[in-house]
Amino acid sequence: MTGSVAETRPVDVNAWIGSYPFRDIPHPDADVLVRVLEREGFAGAWVGHLPGAFYRDPAPSNRTLYRAIAAHRDTLHPAPIVRPDWPHWELALAAAHSEGAPAIRVYPAQWGLSAGHTALAELALACGEYGIVMHATVRFEDMRQRHPMDVAGDVSAATLRAIARLPNSRCHLLVASAGRELIEETHWGLTPDEQARVAYDFGWLWGPPEDHFLHLVRTIGAHRLAWGTAWPLRLAQQCRALVALLPDDVRDALRESPFLDGRRFSHRARMCAEAPRSL
Q1: Residue ranges of the domains in the chain?
Q2: pLDDT of residue 278
């Protein structure tokens, strides 16, 4: 896509393929996702395998993911699961790097890994050395629609801050499906250097009249908020609608400081990994 118009379109940081255990979702297939991205003006997406979030062993999920998107690798970029409390997770991370994955997905709430868990810390440090983004999903659905059997709960701000605060870490963290309160609790609890390595997708934020989205654009900045659709669990049009409803002065300012996307954030993670460490 070098030199093409597609480079100006964002790469979605939060999409899945595959079924969901708690309700039926229509068309969770790779070829459908490609058409949705084209229709909604996205150049591509970081793609996870949704059922794998609920597997004990993520290896079958990752195999399915790589196979399913093989014919669409110019558009769909794998974000496989690496479970750090599972045997041989280092091999799964190395395989993700070999596959050119821009990010790996973690599901701390589903795995029962809370703030300060050494396995999460080890994985975060390893991601930083590889230049692969750690992608943490806060939730799949909010409490109003969550199935009674879905008892894992949301990832806490304390867990996210613990990952971001690791000493000498180069890990870049993408927080997906968070609301305003969690984003603020995480962001304002970090140092400026730590804040620079954390981004948040904005697909879950409320627009008018509460306008949590506008508030965060004005306070933490658009450059920390990334395009994320959460397809097929949510409508891909949500992100575009939020941006369209911003006041004119804010949209004008976005020309100088635009929203983040997968292409730019993964490039940042790689550059950080390749930079020499200061003595």
Answers
A1: 7-274
A2: 67
Only one residue has tokens 């490039």, namely 267
DSSP string, 161-215: HHHHT-TT----EEEES--HHHHHHHHTTS-HHHHTTEEEE-TTS--TTT-HHHH
Residue 142: pLDDT band with limits 50, 70, 90 = confident
- Measure Cα distances from 160 to 87, 110, 117, 178 in Å: 23, 15, 11, 11
Q: How far is CA 38 from CA 10, 32, 47, 79, 82, in A?
A: 11, 10, 15, 19, 29
> Please, which residues bridge with residue 174 across strands?
135, 199
Which CATH number fits the domain 7-274, given the four candidates 3.40.50.300, 3.20.20.140, 3.40.1390.20, 3.40.228.10? 3.20.20.140
d(CA 24, CA 196): 38
Question: Exposed (0-12), middle (13-18) or buried (19+): which is 209, by Cβ within 10 Å?
Answer: exposed
Q: Which of 94, 154, 103 is nearest to 261 (CA)?
A: 103
Residue 116 DSSP one-character state: T
Provide the pLDDT for residue 151.
87
Cis bond upstream, residue 232 (ω within 30): yes
| CA atoms of 75 and 62, how far apart (whole Å) | 18
pLDDT in tens, 159-218: 999 999 999 999 999 999 999 999 999 999 999 999 999 999 999 999 999 999 999 999
Q: How long a stretch of residues is the chain?
A: 279
CA-based torsion, 186, 191, 194, 199: positive or negative: positive
pTM exceeds 0.85 for this model = yes
CA nearest to 11, candidates 265, 255, 263: 263
